[in-house]
Specification:
The chain has 372 residues and is α/β, with parallel strands linked by helices. It has one domain: TIM Barrel (Alpha-Beta Barrel). Helix content is 36%, strand content 16%. It contains twelve helices and twelve strands. The strands form four sheets. Strands 7-8-9-10-11-12 form a six-stranded parallel sheet. Strands 1-6 form a two-stranded parallel sheet.
């Protein structure tokens, strides 16, 4: 079977990578005003060049900046839209780990007025990433637009600015579309949307929480599908857009559980992306049966390698699970990746850089043996 020359690749990854201590120290110095923003950015640049080389050295065909310029996978991006405000934590989130639960108070988001896109958010970061790659295709990851709505619902969106939620969704799709256009003008050909909310809507407990904020968990996937399609409507033909779904990722913890069954038909057939990165590293993600809804022409990147612990998956186990998935979607439409990033927040998962490297190498090895 032929090696893929366009993304998503047979061996791919979700985006975030463990931050080096040097970068973490620089961030702390910036907080204490011991260094300025320009000095921090210089450290970020140097660390990004190193992590791009790491990705190319293990044999990956794509490379991200590891999300080294971010504290959170979503907030650093979203707060740059006009009238999107990061607000202090008000709701306690419970992340589950194999050792017990982690209580975490994540900051929230509030929309205080009409949304705007004053400048390219990721354009300069992408421009630098392009200079750092030698053999890999540069990939940019951004949070899905649904993230602006899901956690707070109607109460987190100004009724004065948006008495009609239809106008809110229209504006949100527009400002995202303007960002996609700005990235396209810089030459970006590989964009990923990090969409946790579809996976959260697979969990019965979280579906009840959605009802608690006045939303219908049966209709919300359709609403989000239209929003995402609006957000990416401006992409050029040479830009591949994929979507990553996971059930939470913080210090090796997770939030949601449940198979993709409740959202599969909408996810695979109403959203106009080219591929999906799907969490499948544990039984909490359910079976491969929902993949039967994947249409021809769309790729599924199986997140069979966990980023939450260091134990390395065996070649035989990964091949067996790929074979299982191929019962529902043709092997030629499949690829392999970790189930999530290694560091969705600056703290990172409970895994070492050496273990991270071994997992990426294993993904490349298995992809070569399975797909050639």
């Amino acid at each position: 079977m032929a090696r893929r020359t366009q993304p998503p690749f047979r061996a791919d990854h979700v985006g975030s990578l463990l931050r080096p201590q040097r970068l973490l120290d620089a961030r702390e110095k910036k907080k204490r005003r011991e260094i300025d923003a320009a000095t921090l950015r210089k450290v970020e640049d140097e660390c990004i060049r190193d992590v791009v080389k790491l990705q190319e050295d293990v044999g990956l065909q794509c490379a991200t900046d590891g999300e080294f310029r971010r504290t959170f996978w979503h907030l650093d991006f979203l707060e740059q839209f006009t009238n999107v405000t990061v607000v202090p934590p008000s709701v306690k989130a419970s992340f589950h780990t194999e050792e017990g639960d982690l209580e975490f108070m994540p900051p929230g988001i509030r929309v205080d007025g009409k949304l705007g896109h004053p400048k390219g958010i990721m354009t300069e970061d992408y421009a630098f990433l392009k200079t750092a790659v030698k053999t890999a295709v540069p990939k940019v990851c951004i949070p899905s637009p649904s993230t602006v709505h899901f956690r707070g619902g109607r109460k987190a969106i100004s009724e004065k600015a948006y008495p009609d939620m239809a106008q809110f969704y229209a504006d949100l799709g527009r400002v995202y579309s303007e960002e996609v256009t700005a990235l396209a003008k810089r030459g970006l050909t590989y964009l990923q949307l990090d969409e946790v909310n579809f996976a959260y809507l697979c969990d019965p407990k979280l579906r009840e929480q959605v009802r608690g904020i006045g939303e219908d968990p049966e209709q919300l996937p359709h609403t989000y599908a239209r929003l995402i399609n609006s957000a990416i409507a401006s992409r050029p033909k040479n830009m591949t857009i994929t979507m990553h779904l996971c059930r939470g990722n913080f210090k090796s913890g997770w939030v949601a559980e449940g198979g993709y069954d409740p959202v599969a038909e909408v996810l695979f057939n109403e959203i106009e992306v080219d591929g999906y990165f799907l969490e499948y590293d544990t039984p909490r993600a359910g079976s491969f049966a929902p993949l039967r809804f994947v249409p021809k022409g769309k790729m599924v990147v199986l997140g069979l390698v966990t980023s939450k612990k260091g134990q390395l998956e065996s070649v035989d186990e990964l091949k067996r699970r790929i074979d299982e998935a191929a019962k529902y979607v043709p092997l030629d439409q499949l690829a392999l990746s970790p189930q999530c990033g290694f560091s969705s927040t600056v703290e990172g998962n409970r895994i070492t850089v050496e273990e991270e490297i071994h997992k990426l190498e294993r993904i490349v090895q298995v992809a070569r043996e399975v797909w050639g």
